[in-house]
Amino acid sequence: MDIPIKYDPKSVEKKRYHYWMRKNYFSSYPDDRIPYTIIMPPPNVTGVLHIGHMLNNTIQDVLIRHARMKGYNTCWIPGVDHASIATEAKVIHQLKKRGLSKIVLGREKFLFHVMKWSKKYKNIIFEQLKKLGCSCDWNRTQFTMSPKLSRSITKVFINLYDKGYIYRGYHVVNWDPEAQTTLSDEEIIYKEHIGKLYYLKYKIKGEENYVTIATTRPETIFGDTAICFHPDDMRYYHLKGKYAQIPIINRYIPIIQDSYVDPNFGTGCLKITPAHDIYDKNIADKHKLKIIDIFNKNATLNDKGLHYKGMDRFEVRKKIIEELYQLQAIQNIEKYNHKIGFSERTLSVVEQRLSIQWFLKMKKMSIPAIEAVKKGNIQFYPKKFYNIYFKWMNKIRDWNISRQLWWGHRIPVYYYGKGINDFVVAESLEKALKKARCKSQNPYLSYNEIRQDPDVLDTWFSSWLLPISIFDGIHHPYNHEICYYYPTEEIVTGSDILFFWVARMIMSGFLLKNHKPFNKVYFTGIVRDYKNNKISKSLNNSPNPIDLINKYGADAVRMGLMLKNSAGKDFHFEEKICVQGRNFSNKIWNAFRLIQSWEVTKDQYVSDSSLLAIEWVRNRFYYILDIYEKYFQKYKLDKSLMVLYKFIWYDFCTFFLEIVKPISGKKYIPEMVYLNVIQFFENILKLLHPYMPFISEEIWNLIRKRKSKEALIISSWPEKKFYDYNILVSFEKATEIISEIRNIRNQNHISHKKSLVLFSIRKKEKEEKKYDPIILKLANLEKIIPVSEKPENVPFFSFLLDTDQFFLLLDRKKGNSNHMDIIKIENKIQYFNNLLSMIRKNLYNNKYVTSVPKNLLLKERKKENDTLNKIAKLKEYLEYLKK
């Protein structure tokens, strides 16, 4: 068989993925096996995937491939999310470049462009996942805007409205002025900002006195409806019941008291602007204050802003300060460090704005979701997220589920009149008309007199139903698939969407199915760039994953990411982790090539060293399997992989293959040894497969002929077996001796081809002597001579391992020294003499000795002593060579 000298991931990965797909290994159908289901957190169709997505999906694939080999009926459901705000913003930006606008196009034509965009990026995303090696069931691909999911979402909305969970309310909401839509609290990024605190003077009605308030937003004074101080703040008690005049507009507003006010902020007096602050709105409702909305949808001022009408809010701030200065209404301005909220999707500064929206009541449905996690029915990895979850759930507020967009699931509400309650909730225009005629008591109401709500539902309103809706569990709650696959096994997701998605899925599971949606949640760390920013599409700060795969191979990228990943811990991405993965791939490939180069002989003689190595590696493998599985079960996947990495690199390649391989110049290996090597290698490939599926499957199929149903991907996982730990300990001692001898050779320029003699003083001679054949072969020793005490006139290198001592001697019979050896040692002695001179230059300098710290001085003296010892050893060696 012609085996390429160099491993070529490109050709292998394309061939192997096609092979898996052709054999239909990823598909899942209900049967008599135990199901193991994962729903992919659907990436947004806003563009290509970034390195964070690659990490998340690699973890899911590792879990799925492991479970598949364990005999579970694995079902990994891929999908993409329509991402209302972000996708609409992307398409609007694209259309703008072509001189087109959303409004001019109209809803139908605009949505045509969005669908075209979505289809393009959905295909790109799926191809990226395939290139990574994701073994998803592609027959079950989901899109959150698919007709099937849309029907489920509409039915749930109607059902929850009928049960009183959904209502229409007039509240202060988070507003994105660029996307011109509401946002949830979780869609806001708060950043530290050094701004200004403006101290403004409001004249007291009927007096020449002023009350001073402090604000970061002077442009909102047009919406002021009161001034408020704390009831216990005696500084302002004399103002109770009075009125103050707003500068510029000269409108009088009452001075009130409320315990919400912080007496230590600013002057202790707060201006109340109910339409643009949720806490001000609460005070306004309590005190029955007037509410004045001063902003347009794009955060320009409306006609309430007088001569600032139509001007941007930040431009107004600059201009209004100038005017307030002229009116002598500014007492002081100082720097102020505070947090500002930015839209996660458009990065514009979020505005709080009074608006009529649709809301979902959350408090009642959160109770069983809290209990399920508290009782351990749903487990979080790592555990630190329990407290975060409980804290958020205990303070949960109603969910604003409406968005002022065109792209998304349109709200199934139809209006037929001008009254606030003149609407019906229905799944179609026809059914809405029937309901509207009944509710309005107008049998002649026509289609022209009824209109659907133009808004769409929050993107997460579709995602929170996925564990149920993808199995059609909304319309057919007891169908075969939902009964078989639900609840799913686990969710793998970033901690940043714990509340967006995970908590809400738990709530919908109990609300709609009276059962948890999944058993476990594994939170990945956040992948960050060198500036410590979260890698995201919006920041465009991710390396192109496909470029990395093309450069290093998918297995290398997967391995690099998995070694860096630890549950719930953020990490900084560096390309060098892919280099480590590529080097490991090459190591495995070279081991395979070495094995393939051997020719099998029927010769029954097997060396002692090979027999010992086979015994050791068998026990070592089952020990590693045990550790690997324990880490895996605890989701310590990085540690599980590292255990395997070290086993392959050091135990299998560095020691085992070196021990059993034919002696130099020969290529024949006994059949018994060869079959054991193949068996061990195949077991190793099984453990490697979840992490590095391509190279493991390739070698599996090349190492020996297989039947059609013997693919690695569906092979059985190795069963745990007894291992003798004492064998491992004893062999490790032998490897330590070998490593010490190799280090001595390297440090002292002794060729690895030169034969050495080892004198050993061992405490347990009989027990340790068992592995001498291996030490002789790998350390290239002529012989090992047991002695009871240090031999005279021969040692020039010695080392201590625990209580055992060893002395190393060049065997002059096997390898006489030559002129080059002597020159090398003389040069080494000269080097250490020069180093000694530099050290002593400081130590013999009284000024240096008296000025440096004591610990540094001790280090220098130790360095001097170590150098002297090295020189003495080398001189002893040199004398021996010259004999």
Tell me about this structure.
The strands form ten sheets. Strands 7, 8, 9, 10, 11, 12 and 13 form a seven-stranded mixed beta sheet that branches. A four-stranded antiparallel beta sheet has the order 6-5-14-16. A four-stranded mixed beta sheet has the order 29-28-31-30, covered by helices on one side. It is 45% helix and 18% strand. Helix 2 (51-69) links the parallel strand 1 and strand 2 (73-77). The chain is an alpha/beta fold and 883 residues long. Helix 19 runs parallel beside helix 21 (671-688) and helix 23 packs parallel to helix 25 (772-778). It is built from 28 helices and 31 strands. It folds into five domains: 33-157 and 471-542, HUPs (Rossmann fold, 3-Layer(aba) Sandwich), CATH 3.40.50; 190-347, Alpha-Beta Complex (Isoleucyl-tRNA Synthetase, domain 2); 574-712, Isoleucyl-tRNA Synthetase, Domain 1, CATH 1.10.730.10; 729-810, hypothetical protein PF0899 fold (2-Layer Sandwich); 819-882, Helix Hairpins (Orthogonal Bundle), CATH 1.10.287.
Q: What percent of residues are in strands?
A: 15-25%
What is the alpha-carbon Rg in Å? 37 Å
Structural class: alpha/beta
Indicate the CATH architecture of the largest domain: 3-Layer(aba) Sandwich
Largest sheet: 7 strands, mixed
Helix content: 40-55%
The low-pLDDT segments are none
Please, how many helices? 28
Strand tally is: 31
CATH class of the largest domain equals Alpha Beta
Query: What count of structural domains?
Result: 5
Shape: globular
Rounded mean pLDDT is 90
According to CATH, the fold-level topology of the largest domain is: Rossmann fold
Q: In angstroms, what separates the terminal alpha carbons?
A: 52 Å
Classified in CATH, the superfamily of the largest domain is HUPs
